[in-house]
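Question thread 4412

I'm putting together a teaching handout and wanted feedback from people who do this every day. The idea is simple: show students a protein as raw sequence, then show them the structure tokens that encode its fold, then repeat with a second protein so they can compare. Below is the first pair exactly as I plan to print it.
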Amino acid sequence: MVFEYILYFFIYSCAGWCVEVIHATLKRGRFENRGFLNGCLCPIYGIGAVLILLCLTPLNIGVYVLFPASVALASLLEFVVGFVLEKLFKTKWWDYSGEHFNIKGYVCLKYSLLWGIACVLLVDVVHPPLAKLIAKMPNLAVWISCGALVAGIAVDIVFTVIQLAAHQKNYAAVEKICSALKIPSDAVGERISQATTDAEKKLAELKQKIRSSRLFKAFPEQKRRKKNACENMEIDLTEKEE
């Protein structure tokens, strides 16, 4: 049970990191390693997913309760993590100050609602098949995977914290180690970002083809003809009444 949830944490942390890379690419047009750590992980996504699964799944509640509960839990987690990170490292890792109905820039209504939708999809759609797949794994494979992943994130956390808190004289050496740790995640992120850019271009090309097609051009003409026909009909009716 515990080991399975450790795997869930890493899977959803990695999935969250991929989502952040795609979001940054669509918003800024380039790859940005948005993770707090050097690896392909955004722990807040993993923590949030595990928290939702532990607190809400056993209750077997309907979507009308699951959604507001997910919004509340996700918003609370985002606020606490954002506040703690800023106090510890004097850096704001995300800022919703420009969004409507935000609380000190840590949370806002728009993203809280999106987290609620994401959590509903997680509980009802994404997680059930994933849980069945992991349940079929041999116990030894699960233990080895958890051990390797925990060791990897422990090293990453240690050097990330040292990098953020290091004195100037030690910073160069720490920076080299962190840069080395970031090589795999940067490589993966670049591929995801490029795939996102390619998909965006293909979608734009498809839209352009549809707009330039005869069928698409015929719609405004048909609409204009119907409008003229309706106007002529109204004129005829008016003349008859007179």
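The second pair follows. I'd like the answer to focus on this one:
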Amino acid sequence: MPDHFPFNTSTDSQTVYQSYLQNGWVLFDTDSEIIEWIHHALPAARRCIEDPGNKGWFRHGNTWFAGVNVLENDHLGAVSNGSPITGEAIQFIRRWISSDVIDFDKAQVSVYYPGYPQKSDDESEAAFGYRERRDAAHVDGLLPVGNLRRRFLREHHEYILGVPMTSASAGASPFVAWRGSHHIVKQALSSILEQHPEGTWGDVDLTDIYQATRRDIFERCERVELPLKPGQTLVAHRLVLHGSAPWHANASADNDGRMICFFRPPNMTASEWLRAP
């Protein structure tokens, strides 16, 4: 099934949903309502990057501004007296994922710059190599804990909504996902978590199964680069393995770098996170 659908498409919405379930994401093309939202949100995102209090979000030799939950939007996505986020992607989320309820978290303002990634002082050679060769591929919600950075299920996102804010060429550290990987992740994590009471899932060490599952996905699933343009929207499955590619040679972006605002509403229970479609 295709993973990209035009705005105002006549394609049946269930077909779009089936594509989302099969691939692990769906892309919606240029939407005037999203462009209007960007008009209000981009200046606010720039202020987040310039804010001295957010200096700590610059990583990897200042080639990535991680900016987790720094955008000052409300629960409908509205920023700086602007309108809530609307458009076809939001209609899709309401119809198929969130039971007609939109309750956004504060968005991550993720910005990549030429030269990404540079090696951080506190980063091991293995971690840096994984970032270079495997796009720092990860599943959201499985957080590294403690000095040993063991992985535990600590956040239960409903979905990933990506809104590209700036123009960039296809090689400017595009979003990367592994097609169908969410099915493998669900099966693998279920095999471990279902052995424990749900109330204890956040304390189950998932490091070994998580690492083995990523290796399996790299062998079995197609890696897909998904460069995005302002006005488009990405809706990715909460369990899909994803990351960002290194900045390709000769890639370019405007002065803001390659910026995407990501919403990951943590509004599910652990059971819903694991068991929902």
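Top answer:
Good format. For the second protein you could add a caption like this: The radius of gyration is 18 Å. The mean pLDDT is 94.
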